[in-house]
Amino acid sequence: MEKPIFIAAALAVAVGSSAVAAAAAVPDTVAVETPVYYVPTAVAMPVMVDSTDVSAKSFDAGSLLRSMPRLDAMAPVVDAPARDASKAEVGALSFRLENRSFGKVRLTVEGADRYLLTVDGRKTAAGEELQLSPATHRVELAWLRVPGDTAGVPKVGYVTATPERFSVRNDGKRMYTLEDVLSGRRVRSVSVAPSGQYLLSRYEEARPDGTVERYSLLSGPKGFVRGRRERADVAWMPVTDRYYYTAEGTTGRELRAVDAASGEESILATGLPQGYFTIAPDERTLIFYVAEEGHKENPDVYRISEPEDRQPGWRTRHQLAAYDLATGIMRPLTFGHTAAQLLDISGDSRELLVRLSRSRLEKRPTTVSTIAILNLDDMSLDTIVADDGFIGTAIFSPDASQVAITGSPEALGGIGNCVPQGRVPSMVDNQLYVYSRGDRSFRAMTRDFDPSVESVEWSRADGKVYFTAENRDMKSLYRMDPKSGRIAMIALPEEMIGSFSVPAKGAMAAFTGHGAQNPDRLYRLDLRKDAASLLDEPMAERLADVELGEFHPWSFVNSRGDSIHGRYYLPPSFDPSRKYPMIVNYYGGCSPTGRDFESRYPHNAYTQLGYVVYVLNPSGAAGFGQEFSSRHVNTAGQGVAEDIIEGTKKFCGEHPWVDSSKIGCIGASYGGFMTQYLQTVTDIFAAAISHAGISDHTSYWGEGYWGYSYSEVSMGGSYPWTRKDLYVDQSPLFRADKIHTPLLFLHGDKDVNVPVGESIQMFTALKLLGRPTAFVAVKDQDHHILDYDKRRRWQDTIFAWFARWLQDDPEWWDTLYPAVPGE
């Protein structure tokens, strides 16, 4: 439930010099007939020790407004309460002013000389022009009456040139807005104690001023323990129910542990070396990452040894070292210029699973890895996989007799590959393999399993393998029997499983998850019954009064006979007899656009503005099987665009409430490329937005930090000098003359993934062609717009562009970006 944030002590008093004219006497003034009133609060006049204060100012009775309580601490009443003229008292009222499109408005106050007026917690004055983004705004008015005042209860209203955009909302509901996306309390991850009796859940609380607090909460069998916030960086010890963290003490860096049951804290080590470490299961050994910096070039004139050398810190290499807590001795475990990464530690702490990675630019893939087992007793290295560029991560089985490895279909010589002959598999369609140390054999466990594997845990409690996987546009949790290879999905109450954790003992796991219509929740999971129980829903109170529209899955069969899955969102109070503009969202690259409640493009926030939102996962996305995901490779968006166009047309044909003349489209990164490319092959869109989009595959290939390496995924085995048909002919820049759709380019000016020049050159082309376009750069932002205030402005820019072209309402855009001379 939304709580008023009217804290008078923190706000200055706005004193009206004269009452604003009555609403009825001003044209286009709308009187607020049914505000919520509150029982007046009596205030005491101070004892006048002197006639003036230290600044020689006389007492201002209006300052008493600062001592009033919060509105949520005052009792609401239906009608305006009677006035006690013998007392000094503060009265208050509030109402919700809603606008579903950008608008300008002035509030009016009649019958109050001493008052405090706020909109969404921000002080304003009657008559001041407010530029309000679409939202349900909370307007609060407090006024002071002193003995002798004769005026009654004030009247409030608003004046606007566009009264059709504003209304007073009295049903107790409100719009879902960008503020709900950016601020609030959320659970981000969860980890279970070794015994399964306790769990640590990590939270993030974002405030409206953009500050973020991160912390952890401890839970036990009976709920949250001790009612205090723990540090965000705490983690469980491997065997005992203690959580640890590091802190600076009087003798240097300390390793501290807290007993989950008693809360007793102990110091495990002092004078600890700096750096990241993992605690071994013996709880006596720490495996450290030791950073070794490479040769530093002259900062003004410097050599780049290879493409990756442009990245900060690339020359730094990490090696592994073992630190003994009892003696404080740290011994090196690996040495060389090849980077070493710790993947797992055996249960007896005697063996490490490590990955050694190196570059090999002359052949795809250009980075290869070796996975090996390092025996800490004799320092021998047993190689499991050598120089394989398609493997991901790996973990030991509980007894370390087997190793679970993730990788693409091409990993391990292609034993998990089932795409048609002549087709290149997608490198991001993750498979699961199991290696047996006894006979040194590999098994492809998910070759005929369509979802794309993500996080993997091998349970010490029941010996099963648990993993999450992209399951079409959802993310599901699965259990695999490593002996039989049987895989079963665990039915859970959320569509998108986030973090999950299984215990070393017992059957009580935990997970976080969300869905298309709800934010993250925290659950316990009984693995014996596969029964989930809700522990926390941190955004429930904040969103209790939010009104969301309906959500429905929708798929179609394309002209090639393929089922293309998607979904759509409807505006609140949807009326099928009306015509609605529609926004089409996609990625179009190698990953599916999942059912995330909060994302780069929060779909429920768009529906609040009167749009239908259609989201689809065209050919090439992982999570639909290897054959489907392989369509992303060496097509440069061709089949993807066909699916998006066909799906949009079929959706409009089946849903007459869509205004087919007012359809917009939006995508980012590869989806930004897709937005640009679509406009070269179709005219069905009335507006388009490309965020951080690729306009020229050749320039992106060479300039982006990950340009050539991502091209190993999207253009597997193809290069600009071998496939002009892909790199040039499919690049929007070389097809710019075909674009007539109004196209907005958005880009962080510090983007190192897709350099900002990708938008600049395409924008330049369209300006030279005289086509409707705009380019908005976001200062000091990378591929994602993360700064709180800049994210708001960026999102408002998107809303304003669509309002201009899909709702024939340029006011918001013109307010944000007034025309410049000569434009």
UniProtKB/TrEMBL annotation:
The lineage of its organism: Bacteria, Pseudomonadati, Bacteroidota, Bacteroidia, Bacteroidales. InterPro entries: 6-blade_b-propeller_TolB-like, AB_hydrolase_fold, Peptidase_S9_cat, Serine_Prot_S9B/DPPIV. This is S9 family peptidase. The keyword Kinase does not apply. GO terms for molecular function: dipeptidyl-peptidase activity; serine-type peptidase activity. Residues 1-23 form the signal peptide. It comes from the Bacteria. PANTHER family: DIPEPTIDYL PEPTIDASE 9, PROTEASE FAMILY S9B,C DIPEPTIDYL-PEPTIDASE IV-RELATED. Residues 606-808 form the Peptidase S9 prolyl oligopeptidase catalytic domain. The keyword Magnesium does not apply. One of its GO terms (biological process) is proteolysis. Keywords: Signal.
